[in-house]
Amino acid sequence: MKKSDGTVTLESFGSLNAYWLESPYPSMWDCIFVLPPWLEVWWHELGFEAELYLGAVRQGGSIIGIAPLLLRGTEAFFIGGTDVCDYMDFVVIPGREVDFFNILLDERKEDQPAGSEAPEAEFGGVYSSYRYRTRSEI
After folding, report:
1. Please, what CATH class does the domain formed by 7-137 belong to?
2. pLDDT, tens only, 13-51
């Protein structure tokens, strides 16, 4: 299977905030619960006992999406909690979802030790609503 053409960089809340303020795609930030200032406040107040993963998925040098996740062991969760946040999601330029998830999954697969579970399993059901086509079907 051909590796996706893109990269994932780990970001800070400061860099995501700067990107949000200058983003040419305001529709990708359509909910307060995905805005960098909200994510940062939630993380500092309630994100204990988890590793922060702010992945910016890039293609052609441009950010096509953000993966705001918490990592606990081999599982990944959105930053936020159902008791506080009404909506948690990835932040992706509309129409770029397939590229975003293929690049993100390829990057996470590279981080897996040999013989471990596939990234889809590692991330639980987080990708299930987006990963509906294989690369060969695209």
Report:
1. alpha beta
2. 999 999 999 998 888 888 888 999 999 998 998 888 889
